[in-house]
Specification:
heterodimer; A: Rossmann fold; 2 domains; B: Rossmann fold; elongated
């Protein structure tokens, strides 16, 4: 065999295989710089959050330095030597109460009946004090029967300590209550006390008191007495610090939704039989197995090394669009006319380069057109409108057909 | 090797449901999960290790595009157990393998064959990218998958659709050769025989010396010279990637090259082929007359257009290395204004000095269709643009003809015949 099929192709084949290999392309696409940038970004975010100091924001949160937080009160209490312990579960708060400490409940309205009962029992069992911030009627009814809410203060008001306040004033002569719009939890509540054991202080109008106390339960009519934003008003700070720092230790109880006692007993799921959970888990497990089994793919997805192919008319169509956009009717007419003239000259046996006059002279005996009509058709006469261009194309066609006949 | 559960394993897991309903405890759940895992693992262990199966391939070597060819995969099970296998032979899609997957049962110490039939839909090389064998356990709960090594590759050859035009052109060639009497003496002819003068013979071809020896007037007859050299150069650059109708320009170019090769083989000429663009490329050089067509079909099968511009200077160097003075050079490249700027014109002028030069171009039939559009304003503009493009092409082919080349420009369905006809015309004119 003298066949000598020069195999200069392998070099090219290899190059092609290299570019076609999907795994290599994917690996090259993932730049190490991207990973590094991500790591740096995560580290920077962590550092910034540490530098800023992490705190939980919310109404009367002890760590929050925002307007609605209570960091000011808590920090001053700490400086005064009061140990402040933050609790989020009712059980812990009840434990502190039973041990005889002071417990501040920042949001007593969010507590359920069970939680309030637990607090009440702890209060009865020990000799602690329970400070409630803006409790409502239902909340109070669990803990004491002698304090009831009677009204609200909508306008910014200053309430003075009456002469019959006694210890309840805690050294404050006047309290400032912000108006409804500045307030944290709506207008401040006023409480009426009944009986001899219960008494109120900082009365406003018709006998309602902003601070009321009975048998270890103290109701504060406004949450703003403790917030960072308003604790500095009038003698609010005096009341807050003296009331909460009395025992030397304070439990700051912020009710939270993930408290196990906050769960409302029997839910819809509770009606399900006890085998429902394990069965559901087993069904999920089976479904996962089925998905894994069905998703099993035997081998890789195969790529097709398709050769390139190009539409060759793009250039012509693009030029046509350009001509149309530019309204280049004369240019279009010129190319149509010259093509028709070339074909006619070929038909009539003229040289390609022959002049228009020669072509017209040769055409004249074969067609019925007037000579000036022919000159308009084939000569460089202007084409004013689009309709004229279309008509010119048709006329040229007709002329060529006439000569062909 | 991978172990994976089958859908049946998920169904088997459902048997655990009544147990859980009867004893709804978490430890029962854990126990059942462990039990299920054990059963599936035992089934996987009982399955034949797919790596121990021996796979041999009987793949076809080549097939003409449009035809169907068969191959076989032979699976041997050297173990004593029955192997329940699923085999996937992952060829690229255009290889046209009828069924990529096959499920079969190979008893121990036996061999089974998987029949495969390929109907490729793309010219070029086709490969099996992966061959995977999965075996199932006796209960069908788990399968083990492994890759087998049995490389498969075949070439889908150019269909050579222009073959049907060969007999008529060979007929014409024989006529030219037979009409030696009216054949003029020329550059590309050789002495054939002496015969008596008949009316109409060229007086210049009278052999006076022979006439002197005999009583009648004797003329020399000439026939086209045999054993000439034809070099076909196919441009595989970006312009050859243009899709004209069903196939690309390159496909038609190869069709024309093959028809010319077959015809030149009949005429007793030697044919070489070069594929040029910017990088070293496939070529068929020095094949014998009997094998040249086969070599050319095999070599061109895997050539695809590349999106580069042809380096004509480099091509000219290669051509002058590969051809003798006077051999016919056929350039198959589109005649386009853009190609002129690529330097084809000076190269063609230089080549035409030393060789008879034919430039064969495959024209775009869509251009003619666009040029005939008269419906609305848009189609008239398109027609104008198409006429302009055609005028440019005409200008380029006139420039090439002035440079001494013979230009053949025809749409794909006529291009191979047109090239063959121009070769025959050169033969008849004695220029070759």
């Amino acid at each position: 065999m003298s066949a000598d099929t020069t195999a200069a192709a392998p070099a090219r084949d290899e190059a092609r295989a290299g570019t076609a290999s999907p795994s290599r392309g994917a690996r090259e696409g993932r730049s190490p710089w991207l990973v590094a940038a991500l790591v740096v970004a995560v580290l920077a975010a962590m550092l910034i959050s540490v530098a800023r100091g992490y705190y939980r924001d919310g109404p009367l949160e002890p760590d929050a330095p925002t307007g609605q937080g209570a960091k000011a009160v808590v920090q001053v209490l700490g400086d005064l030597g009061v140990e402040v312990e933050v609790d989020r579960h009712t059980a812990d708060a009840a434990e502190s109460l039973r041990a005889g400490g002071t417990v501040l409940v920042t949001a007593p309205r969010e507590l359920s009946g069970a939680q309030l009962t637990a607090l009440d029992e702890a209060l009865r069992a020990g000799d602690g004090r329970l400070v409630l911030v803006q409790p409502d009627f239902v909340t109070l009814s669990y803990l004491t029967s002698l304090i009831t809410p009677v009204g609200t203060v909508e306008e910014p008001t200053r309430l003075g300590a009456g002469p019959d306040c006694g210890d309840l004033a805690h050294g404050a002569r006047e309290l400032a209550v912000p108006g409804e719009e500045d307030s944290l939890r709506g207008p401040a509540s006023l409480y009426r006390t009944a009986g001899d054991d219960a008494h109120g202080c900082f009365t406003a109008g018709a006998g309602g008191a902003l601070v009321a106390s009975h048998d270890g339960v103290i109701a504060l009519g406004s949450a703003d007495l403790l917030t960072n934003a308003h604790v500095g008003g009038a003698d609010n700070a005096a009341l807050a610090l003296n009331l909460l720092g009395q025992d030397g230790e304070l439990t700051w109880y912020v009710p939270s939704a993930n408290d196990p006692m906050a769960a409302t007993g029997q839910t819809l799921l509770g009606h399900l039989p006890d085998w429902a959970g394990p069965t559901l888990l087993w069904v999920l497990l089976t479904a996962t197995i089925a998905l894994v089994a069905l998703a099993h793919r035997l081998g890789p997805v195969v790529q097709e090394p398709l050769p390139v192919s190009v539409r060759p008319q793009e250039l012509v169509l693009g030029r046509a669009r350009l001509l149309q956009q530019a309204n280049a009717r004369d240019a279009a007419a010129r190319s149509l006319r010259s093509a028709a003239a070339a074909r006619l000259a070929h038909r009539l046996g003229l040289r390609r380069e022959s002049s228009l006059d020669a072509l017209l002279a040769a055409l004249a005996p074969h067609v019925e057109h007037e000579p000036h009509r022919l000159r308009d058709l084939l000569g460089p006469s202007p084409v004013p409108t689009d309709q004229d261009l279309v008509r010119l194309a048709h006329d040229l066609d007709r002329l060529e057909k006439e000569i062909d006949r | 090797m991978r172990i994976s559960p089958t859908p049946r394993a998920a169904l088997v897991a459902l048997f655990g449901l009544p147990v859980i309903v009867l004893w709804p405890h978490w430890w029962v759940l854990v126990l059942l999960a462990v039990l299920w895992l054990l059963v599936v693992l035992v089934d996987a262990l009982l399955a034949v290790d797919p790596r121990r199966l021996r796979v041999r391939r009987e793949a076809p070597a080549q097939v003409r595009l449009g035809g169907t060819v068969t191959g076989r995969l032979l699976l041997t099970n050297p173990t004593g157990r029955v192997a329940r296998c699923t085999v996937r032979d992952a060829w690229n899609p255009t290889a046209g393998l009828a069924a990529q997957r096959a499920s079969l049962r190979v008893p121990g110490q036996e061999r089974r064959a998987i029949a495969q039939s390929f109907t490729p839909t793309r010219r070029g090389e086709h490969r099996s990218r992966a061959l995977l064998v999965a075996t199932r356990g006796p209960w069908g709960l788990a399968r083990r998958t492994a890759t087998a090594t049995a490389p498969g590759r075949f070439l889908a050859l150019h269909p050579f659709g222009a073959r049907r035009h060969l007999p008529s052109r060979v007929q014409r060639l024989r006529e030219i050769e037979g009409l030696s009497a009216i054949h003029q003496r020329g550059q590309g002819t050789e002495f054939d025989s002496l015969r008596d003068f008949v009316d109409g013979d060229d007086v210049r071809s009278i052999d006076w010396r022979a006439t002197a020896r005999r009583r009648s007037v004797v003329v020399r007859t000439w026939r086209p010279e045999r054993d000439r050299h034809v070099l076909i150069v196919v441009d595989t650059s970006r312009t050859s990637a243009g899709r004209l109708g069903e196939a690309t320009r390159l496909d038609t170019a190869f069709d024309a090259a093959l028809l010319l090769t077959a015809l030149a083989g009949q005429a007793g000429d030697r044919v070489d082929l070069l594929c040029v663009d910017r990088i070293p490329h496939v070529s068929v050089l020095g094949s014998t007359r009997t094998t040249v067509l086969h070599d050319m079909v095999a070599a061109t099968a895997a050539v695809d257009p590349a999106l580069v511009e042809t380096d004509w200077e480099r091509a000219a160097r290669t051509i002058s290395e590969r051809s003798r003075r006077g051999s016919l050079v056929v350039l198959i490249t589109p005649v386009e204004a853009a190609a002129m700027h690529g330097g084809l014109l000076p190269v063609a002028a230089r080549l035409a000095k030393d060789h008879p030069l034919v430039i064969a171009s495959v024209a775009d039939p869509a251009l003619e269709q666009i040029a005939g559009g008269r419906g609305d304003l848009e189609s008239v503009y398109r027609a104008a643009a198409a006429e302009q493009a055609r005028a440019e092409r005409d200008g380029v082919s006139r420039a090439l003809e002035r440079a001494g080349a013979h230009v053949v420009d025809a749409p794909p369905d006529r291009a191979p015949q047109a090239l063959a006809d121009s070769y025959l015309a050169l033969k008849a004119a004695g220029r070759l």
